[in-house]
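Consider the tokenized backbone below.
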């Protein structure tokens, strides 16, 4: 079965691409999400859990900005200029994956004190939680479309791309 560029990236150079492009961002995001639930429930905004969340959020935003820039210039620009996209599912998967830079960047800006520093801790927590939710949405859309056969949304026969397959 043909793969989207998203899935091909994760499957190539095992296990390193999977670690760099999936495990590191997801582990950081899950750490933030779990901490967020704890903070929203307990309202203990000055303890160790908040520090862990703040560190994970700062690292996640900076790390993913690097991932975004790297993939934008080494994958998106060449794929676009060369007309090498494999269909709408391919574009959606890569686009939503890279859109993760917005919520992770927002989380980092809050955690580093550059965004909403003049707001109350509760207001910052609310925006922080919104960015966590947005990241979960874009990451899951990327994963779902990334696992699709990229020809599925093109109207092409996916079996035609597989030699020897009878349908």
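A designed sequence for it:
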């Amino acid at each position: 079965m043909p793969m989207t560029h998203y899935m091909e990236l994760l499957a190539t150079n095992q296990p390193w691409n999977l670690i760099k492009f999936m495990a590191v961002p997801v582990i950081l995001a899950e750490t933030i999400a779990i901490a967020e639930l704890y903070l929203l429930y307990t309202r203990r905004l000055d303890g160790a859990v908040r520090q862990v969340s703040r560190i994970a959020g700062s690292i996640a935003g900076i790390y993913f900005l690097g991932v975004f820039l790297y993939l934008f210039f080494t994958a998106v620009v060449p794929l676009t200029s060369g007309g090498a996209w494999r269909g709408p599912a391919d574009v959606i998967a890569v686009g939503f994956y890279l859109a993760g830079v917005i919520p992770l960047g927002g989380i980092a800006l809050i955690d580093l004190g550059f965004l909403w520093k003049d707001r109350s801790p509760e207001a910052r927590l609310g925006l922080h939680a919104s960015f966590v939710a947005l990241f979960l949405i874009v990451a899951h859309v990327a994963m779902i479309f990334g696992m699709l056969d990229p020809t599925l949304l093109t109207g092409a026969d996916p079996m035609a791309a597989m030699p020897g397959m009878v349908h």
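The first helix runs from residue 5 to 11.
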